[in-house]
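Work through this protein:
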Amino acid sequence: MEIFGVVNASPDSLAGFSIVSDQHQGEQYGAQLVAEGADHLDIGAQASHGDAAFVSADEEWQIVKNPLQGLLSLGVDVAIDTWQVETARRALDAGCRVLNAADALQTNEMIELAAEREIQIVLPFMLGPDPRHLKHVTGDPVQVMVDWFDLQLERAARWGIRERLMLDPGTGFAPAHWDWEDRFQYQKAIYQGLYRLRPFELPIYVPIAWKQTPDRLELIDLVLAQEVEYVRAHIPAQVRQRHNAIREGTPLPTSELWPDYE
């Protein structure tokens, strides 16, 4: 399993400890994540939660470009996390090797950009035009997700990018202002059904929660036990620790919280 360590350039991010604002901070925090077990890094400048302010592509690039240079100096693959094609283009031109397509490649402009470049692409499950405006999933959420990927992968194949995709169940997004209990039950159902993505024969990429509660650690362990290929995590050391314990047959208790991240 490989880890994308999360760096946030957006001042709206709820994970305040992960926010950087210039090249030096980006390099310093990125190096910390790598030292704690991250293989790659992921940076974005537009928060996706329901209360986040919208920024234009030009504003997004101004926010992210200097921290991005700091990450690129570390010599690891860096993903740009954006739903705006011009931000993606500029970041790929700067040296990013992975596109975390937060629009789920729903515009021809974004999928065309992905087809032009020799990059890996994260494709998240998403019902709606962008992460801030999502539809509620009704019925069996795993079947809805599988059916959605089935259609999107046909389209990706036509553009010649299918084999470069990583499948993200989209649990880092949800319709705004869900109660946590509803979100928890939704994510648990999705994670218990991740095996149903295996017939697509593509790597699975899952965003990992950073808030420290027993139910969130339960969700993390559900993901790690299924040996997904990639996770996106704010706390790589905790993910490595829990993954190793699961592999050794001695899972850690979900009460073992890391208080610095609560």
